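My main concern about presentation is that the manuscript never shows what a single data entry looks like. In essence, backbone conformation is discretised, so a fold becomes a row of integers matching the chain in length. An entry of this sort, consisting of the sequence and the corresponding backbone structure tokens, reads as follows:
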Amino acid sequence: MLALLESGRRFDWRDLGRPSADKHSTGGVGDKVSLVLAPLVAACGVLVPMVSGRGLGHTGGTLDKLESIPGFKTTLGADAMRAQLDAIGVVMVGQGPDLAPADGRLYALRDVTATVEFEAVHRVEHRQQEDRRGRRRDRLRREVRRRRVHEDARAGARVGAAPGRRDAGARRSGRGARDRHESAARRRRRKRARSRGEHRRPEGDGPSDVRVLTLELAALMLERSGAERDRAAGLARAARAIDSGDAWERFVAMVRAQGGDAAAVETPGKLPRAPHVLDVKADRSGVLSAVRTFALGELIVHLGGGRVAKEDDVDPRVGVRVLRRIGDAIASGDTLVEVHAAGDDPGLAARARACFVIEGRAAEPPALILERID
């Protein structure tokens, strides 16, 4: 891992006078948290030079989501990154000629070979690692997380991990523009509420579990970077930044700074939309006890939301929108998931339905965060 780190330049932001932090995820089918988290933490006064990846096998990629915004550039030079960090506190890019170039090449190879058990490498002064753990290979994943924390510490980072289950998932998940649209909706509704003089958190577009997970990770980043004294203070500060609309305004500023069309994120409906939307309904009653997220991710790849060859383009219109969470009571005929497809495919409904396990017994909703590793 250190060899990958040393394949490019090390960047030092300390002379900008603010602490820095980043979050890296080991992957999720609908992992949209980074899109909210990075501008949120920046709105709290911490520099967030976030280095993200593309889709990896069945998992979604932050860069692919950002590139669903017309014009958005995910590759910036060192001087441009520094200037943007100084001006607005956040930049979201991928690997480049100066920034962990060996990791970028290996990541592309891992994507098309679906080799997802080893993690991408990048470092900043502080980092919070998120892992949505699946039902299998729990022992291996625990060892991998602890190794990552140990090796990041050897590289000089103050790092922690906040693992959760992959199948716990945020209630709504997808890929490409679907995830980008949902993340924007969550921030945008805060701005609308503030303009109406509302101080309580309004109900509406974004799922509550995404808010909970994002605030927990933001609090850990603020604590680890030294911007706040403890988790409670970090939670309070992050919640204020969302509810005031500051996080949303920071996101829009980042889109403009990186060449993106701000109107595409400020106006609902401007992002690409799939021509076919299929409501997949339950064929029995019971309780949702599990979601086969690997199969769900492979279904999205089949739709065009992932790559089979590293040269493939990702269709930002396609994806899924999961409407139920583990532990929910399900009646026969309830919609489990919306499938957004580029064309008509008669086998999609059965394939999507098979991703959801409905049983007669009650199931406890799994925790969003299982433990904290320091």
Q: What stands out?
A: The CA atoms of residues 20 and 47 lie 4 Å apart. The domain at 276-359 is CATH 3.90.1170.30 (Aldehyde Oxidoreductase; domain 3). The chain is about 40% helix and 15% strand. The chain has two domains: 2-266, 276-359.
